[in-house]
Write a structure and sequence with these properties.
With 315 residues, the chain is of the alpha/beta class. The protein has 13 helices and eleven strands.
Length: 315
């Protein structure tokens, strides 16, 4: 039997806390009466969890001796973390416990230093702030979870289910994890990563490139070279590349590619156009090229994306 200790801090996201309770509580292993013992360990006897308070049975000292310590997300991920919490997590890690965060729980792990030098993820909305506050962490906003061995992190909300099922599979094998997934009405492995859920904002007037970006958005369907874009912008290609990097952090052609994929996502969600028609509409010369770029940027293929996000009532 493995002991799962779930950290309950003030401001904990109830969904994130309940996810490991539900997943590990549903695990059934032939010949083992209790596959997991679950402890919810609070930084106080009564933990404030937004709309309600939690009365917890265990305190921070019970993180010690746990096989796995899980850190759920916080409603305010930038809140100060109590020294007692940091010390308890550091001690658990030093004792060899597996430490996993769900969603913005990555900020708590980051405060302990346990993520320094490692690849990690969190909710895509919070990823830029995590990277800004903790530059020693390699933040990947596109994946559902990251397994570094002892230290694991997951993206937002439902990605905690993916992470917990992954840990069940590591502990008891694929068959047990698959059965747990069925009991949770959840696929054992979801197609694609967090990138498919990111909402990309349109160009804003906060950049001097805004007129050019609008023009690019309106001409996604046409073949556009760097030279043609530079002519429209009234600059040399060198100056155009420099301005783009300064104001958008990327090159004109990379921005154009992302815009085409973003438009393709909208068409897959809202129209009945075939994959070939979508590819042509957003300016790809071939469907094969479109599929390759879509899969690389969104981490899933166009057909799977449409199944997940398309309007089922479209004709």
């Amino acid at each position: 039997m493995y002991v799962i200790a779930i950290l309950a801090m003030h401001g904990v996201v109830p969904f994130d806390l309940s996810t490991p309770c539900e997943v590990f509580g549903r695990v059934r292993v032939p010949g083992i009466q209790d596959a997991y013992q679950i402890r919810v360990c609070g930084e106080a006897k009564t933990v404030k969890a937004g709309a309600f308070d939690l009365r917890v049975q265990w305190d921070l000292s019970h993180l010690a001796g746990a096989h796995t310590v899980i850190v759920p997300g916080l409603a305010n991920p930038t809140m100060p973390i109590a020294d007692e919490v940091i010390y308890a997590l550091q001690a658990a890690a030093a004792d060899g416990a597996r430490i996993a965060s769900i969603c913005t729980g990555a900020f708590v792990l980051a405060a302990t230093g346990l993520l320094d030098g490692l690849r990690a993820t969190t909710h895509w909305l919070a990823a830029p702030e995590l990277a800004r506050r903790y530059p020693a962490i390699k933040v990947d906003p596109n994946v559902l979870f990251v397994d570094n061995g002892q230290i694991l992190t997951s993206a937002g909300a439902a990605a905690g289910l993916d992470l917990c099922l992954h840990m069940v599979r590591c502990d008891y094998g694929n068959a047990v994890a698959a059965n747990t997934a069925r009991l949770s009405v959840m696929p054992l492995e979801r197609e694609g990563g967090q990138a498919q859920f990111i909402v990309y904002e349109p160009p804003t007037s906060e950049t001097t490139l805004e007129p050019l970006l609008r023009w690019l958005e309106q001409n996604l369907h046409t073949p556009l070279t760097l030279e043609a874009i530079a002519v429209e912008a009234g600059m040399s290609t060198r100056t155009l590349n420099r301005r783009f990097r300064e104001q958008s952090g990327t090159t004109p052609l990379q921005w154009l590619l992302a815009a085409r994929i973003r438009r393709a996502q909208q068409l897959l969600e809202t129209t009945a156009l075939s994959i070939e028609e979508v590819a042509t509409t957003v300016g790809f010369a071939s469907t094969t090229t479109f599929r390759e770029h879509f899969n690389r940027l969104i981490d899933t293929n166009p057909q799977a994306y449409r199944r997940n996000f398309g309007n089922q009532n479209q004709s």
